[in-house]
Amino acid sequence: MRRSAARKTGQSNSTAPITSSATDLFRSASSKASSKEMERIDNLFYSYANRSSGLIDPEGIENLCSDMEVDHTDVRILMLAWKMKAEKQGYFTLEEWRRGLKALRADTVNKLKKALPELEKEVKRPSNFVDFYAYSFRYCLTEEKQKSIDIESICQLLDLVLGSHFRAQVDYFIEYLKIQSDYKVINMDQWMGFYHFCTEISFPDLSNYDPALAWPLILDNFVEWMQEKRT
Which GO MF terms are attached to this record (predicted)? Predict the structure, then answer.
């Protein structure tokens, strides 16, 4: 019995170097493939980057959009910026580019174009969409210490980001924003408040809207305006 146990132990030890060698080969091949992929991602970045700044600037983004046959105002370009966690509107750093394209497994323009539909699905998941919605506001803060966005830009952003989800609410709110004179800009609290309004309030009857709750004042005014329109 002891000899049998010894043989089993010996057999186990004899396969260990083979298993270890196979694992090392797999890791080495995987590392090389990852390195090659990152090299292609970097090369793609530099094909669009401005040589003097080392960034993909607005012109580079327009060229990228042209190559992908996507309009530069398409919401999916904003989604791409969200995926990269890009900090400055109209610019991509190499680090941001790497982060986004590696996550999308895209190292060519064609692969990036093919990844856009899946990216759109990812963003539209409720857990992701609220983050994307908040990001879209921050992304449009182009000046240092800027905390609000002018009404005209907000109307465009609402239509781009939220229009396909809550068409009626967005159309009415944009109409209200354009005719009212109390607000020249919108801040983040008001921006997020409108999203919660869309997801929580029955529309257009507004039957469950309670002005006593902590809604931004602009939404109280919007609801009053809506009620006056119906009478």
Answer: cullin family protein binding; ubiquitin conjugating enzyme binding; ubiquitin-like protein binding
The pLDDT tens digits for 2-37 are 444 444 444 445 555 556 665 655 555 556 667 899
Q: Which residues pair with 92 in a beta bridge?
A: 56
State how far the Cα of 142 lies from the Cα of 88, in Å rounded to an integer. Answer: 7
Are 93 and 55 in contact by the 8 Å Cβ rule? The answer is: yes
Structural contact between residues 61 and 90, judged by C-beta atoms closer than 8 angstroms: yes
How far is Cα 45 from Cα 60, in angstroms, rounded to an integer?
Answer: 9
Q: What is the pLDDT of residues 55-92, one digit of tens each?
A: 999 999 999 999 999 999 999 999 999 999 999 999 99
Token pair 């327009």 in the structure block, residue: 62
CA gap 83, 122 in Å, rounded: 10
Would you put residue 57 in left (φ > 0), alpha (ψ -120 to 50) or beta?
beta
| Angstrom distance (rounded) from CA 37 to CA 120 | 23
CA distances to 33, 165, 170 from 221, in Å? 58, 23, 15
pLDDT of amino acid 80: 98
Domains of the chain: 34-124 (1.10.238.10), 128-229 (1.10.238.200)
DSSP-assigned states of every residue in 124-193 = HSHHHHHHHHHHHHHHT--STT--EEEHHHHHHHHHHHTTTTSHHHHHHHHHHHHH--S-SEEEHHHHHH
- Dihedral angle sign, alpha carbons of residues 131, 49, 106, 96: negative
Peptide bond into 204 cis (omega under 30): yes
